[in-house]
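Annotated sample (chain length 407).
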Amino acid sequence: MTIENKLTQVALRPEAGWQAAQELGWAAVLWRLPRAKEKQLIINFNPELTQTKIVLEDLPAGFAVSPFLNLEGNDSFFIEADLYFRFGASNEVLAEQSNLPLTDPQRVTWENRAHLVDLTPHHEVHPLVHRSHSDVASASYIKSVEEAVAAIETGSLKKVVLSRTKEIELPSGLSYVQLFERLNQKYPNAFVSLVYLPHLDQVWLGATPETLVSVDREGIFRTVALAGTQPAFDGNGQLMSPKKAPWTQKEIEEQALVSRYIISCFKKIRVREYIEEGPKTVIAGNLMHLCSEYAVDTKEINFPEIGTVMLELLHPTSAVCGMPKQAALDFIQKHENYDRAFYSGFLGPVNVEKETNLFVNLRCMKIQQGIATLYAGGGITEDSDPQKEWQETELKCHTMLSVLAES
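Output written by the structure step:
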């Protein structure tokens, strides 16, 4: 199909465009890249999404969503961009691409619905109803951490990432686009996204700090090693300086394991010409992490496929799974007792305006049938304190709880 690049003739709010698609039962993604002011929107009119392997060189413009368990790589969903918009800080349309003419009935229906969407903020405060029993969840998670530490001490594991969920009953009439806006304001350094998957009847909302794979229009490939966690605020509620962050041996080693794994992937594909920066302390909402950044000039080494190759090698990273990978996966499936689904999978725009940005799906929640499922996990090493690991997951859940608490 031909691609139209002319700007739309009608004023369109990105949040209204997303909500209109959701009301009509069409897949939609609204996102904002880290430290960016612009929002981007993709709409797909196909009722059944394509499930495929993410081969960056072969795909058109769209948005990828992969589950955590995707060992062969064939279980990712790809939301092709029937409509794509990039909006400026004042919601003006900066760019548009379309596989559909302006007169297409589906497009006309969607635009008409978008102009009827009411985006007036609602400020009612509803008490959050927790469906999970905290004492039971805490005891179960602490027991799993204790068993993980024991397995690490025997040498069967070096590290494993254990996660848990928290379920919240949502008040009726809650606006998902308002939650997106709150995340957008609270977490400017994160990748903030709102994804509607009609075939699953699920909305996924998140603000993740972790890049998995990116390739920009200049051909620069990037990835990060992000691990180690501590509160970003001191006991008095004051934001701490990243330069003064005290890191323990446990957290330093946890992050080093992720860094070593990335370097081992470079060695496996015989890439030696990479730039490494860090580790340095970065702030992600109410938390601090240790982060190392890696970059490769794909044009200089004549390796345009490195994004696809590294995606296959990296996912799931040791930051969300563990090491050795298969042993960690086996331990997770035995002890977590729930399906992570898209949590700790990856998601992001592919080949949108000649760039790809895929992120690990952290600090997120699934919304389905009036229930929000929040996810959080922590990296377990031989130095882990089970009670502190539980508290770390509570801190990570706060990212999403903070926006729900305002509802």
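Annotation: The first helix runs from residue 14 to 24.
Annotation: Helices lie at 14-24, 105-114, 134-154, 176-186, 249-268, 306-314, 325-335, 386-404.
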